[in-house]
Amino acid sequence: LLFLSETGGKDRRSGLILTIPLCLEQTSMDELSVTLDYLLSIPSEKCKARGFTVIVDGRKSQWNVVKTVVLMLQNVVPAEVSLVCVVKPDEFWDKKVTHFCFWKEKDRLGFEVILVSANKLTRYIEPCQLTEDFGGTLTYDHMDWLNKRLVFEKFTKESTSLLDELALINNGSDKGTQQERERSIDLNFLPSVDPETVLQTGHELLSELQQRRFNGSDGGVSWSPMDDELLAQPQVMKLLDSLREQYTRYQEVCRQRSKRTQLEEIQQKVMQVVNWLEGPGSEQLRTQWGIGDSIRASQALQQKHEEIESQHSEWFAVYVELNQQIAALLNAGDEEDLVELKALQQQLSDVCYRQASQLEFRQNLLQAALEFHSVAQDLSQQLDGLLGMLCVDVAPADGASIQQTLKLLEEKLKSVDLGLQGLREKGQSLLDQISNQASWAYGKDVTIENKENVDHIQGVMEDMQLRKQRCEDMVDVRRLKMLQMVQLFKCEEDAAQAVEWLSELLDALLKTHIRLGDDAQETKVLLEKHRKFVDVAQSTYDYGRQLLQATVVLCQSLRCTSRSSGDTLPRLNRVWKQFTVTSEERVHRLETAVAFHSTAEKILQECPDQPEAFNEMDQFDEIEAVGKSLLDRLTVPVVFPDGSEQYFGSPSDMASAAEHIREKMKLVSLKKQQLRQPEATTPES
């Protein structure tokens, strides 16, 4: 039964040749009948009208099987069969079994049956229409024909089923309402087989058929026009055309459905983004209105805001993707969806940009609040440092350290001024931003929240202003105190300097003011210079006293005890007393020297012709007494009030002054002797 086939050969009447090869195995008549029905269904009606020639190959079968097959043909295809050629074996069947004469049964069978050997089959059929099994030249590969037939049957079945499915899908898309179209498309949207695969199979089959015909006509291979009918090349082409048409419509339906689905998905995602941004996203921003009351609080709010931004970023990423998809659909140019797509794009963009602006505004506000609190904290630390510096009692070592401390104080105060100015600028900028917060409040009254923020900012600035003002007041007091301390140190230094000057004057008086003059005139000049020298010393002493008095006043004002004025006043008084004693001694010596020189000069200058001037010898006694007294004082040290002693000049200086006085005393003594000699001569005469 496997090789029961139509070989494509034709008899002399152009009828198709049907070959039934029989074998030794048991042949199922039912299967043979079904196979015959299938084979007879293949040719066209026009081809069937020309009749069939059936070749029953009984060379490998028994006579009773051959007879049964021939009789079966009567029941299956009596009208189509015109001739049955039973190919008998070389050793003919026994006459006992072949007594049945088919030719006598022609009228009853409806067709002619002949028994013929294989080598004589060409009497009835042309060799070119017989296969090699029957001595012909017709090229026929039964397995090739069977495989192609199976491919054709599969293609026919699949394409027919696919056409019905595609027609149902395509016709469903043409229904009246959109809802009906969508329901119909949803129920039959996916075909049971892949249209591309079926089309590829059909094209390959058609290509094979066309290639076979081309090779047969040009390559010399035997070919019969029945190939077009047996393998149904026109049917394949017709099915392919129908499939292409329906598949094109199906693709359009799928495209429309895909576009609609994509549009619905985009719309759904857009609404998800919009609903979240206008719902939970906006609610998150509405609950975050504070700015914090410190750096740490502002940083905590910034961290919370970053978490909110992170959640928004996920939805903004969806927005970017959706915007790209919408832009791609808009570029596709489907006018029916342009309005809806643009509306979706505009709605999505408006919501996202508004939410992004609110996030940016909130971030800027928190950053401004952080900067404000940072400046406030820095200013507070500066004020604390300045206050700490002002609260510490000033105990400088000298005026230079006071000046340095005062300079540092002024620098800190200037830094505080700059810090307060920066705080005001930051605060005003923050207040300006807070005043704009109501623009994105979604109708929520943020007056109370804003008032709390405004009160906090203004309170911080006012508190810093008050603290700065208190520090300024304390700086003024400290500045005055420090200036008084500078003046105190200056007075103490100047007083000490006055003591030093006075000590230098005393030292100069003792060491350099030792000459007594060679005559009365010079001594008087020295005396006058000494008085001026004393005036200078007196001024120095008075200046020191005034400075020390100012020191006392300043100490009382500063409520402190001067470290140096306590011993400066005794030193000043001690030096001044020493100077006074020394000056008095100097004056006494100069005055004595003036008296000595005046008297001596008067005696020495008087003319010896006037002896009446020297009648009283007591003048000589007086000059001698003065001279001796002066010489004695030159050898006596100056005794200070504390009991200490100090000599004028060096011993050599004193010896020189004493020598000069002695010489003058000698001159006076000689004068005295000269005056006495005339007196002695006169009585004798």
Automatic annotation (TrEMBL):
UniProt KW keywords: Repeat
Gene Ontology MF, one: phosphatidylinositol-4-phosphate binding
Coiled coil spans: none
Pfam families the record matches: CRAL_TRIO_2, Spectrin_SESTD1
InterPro entries registered for this protein in UniProt: CRAL-TRIO_dom (IPR001251), Spectrin_SESTD1 (IPR056804)
All copies of domain CRAL-TRIO, residue ranges: 1-142
Protein family (similarity comment): Belongs to the SOLO family.
Protein name in the entry: SESD1 protein
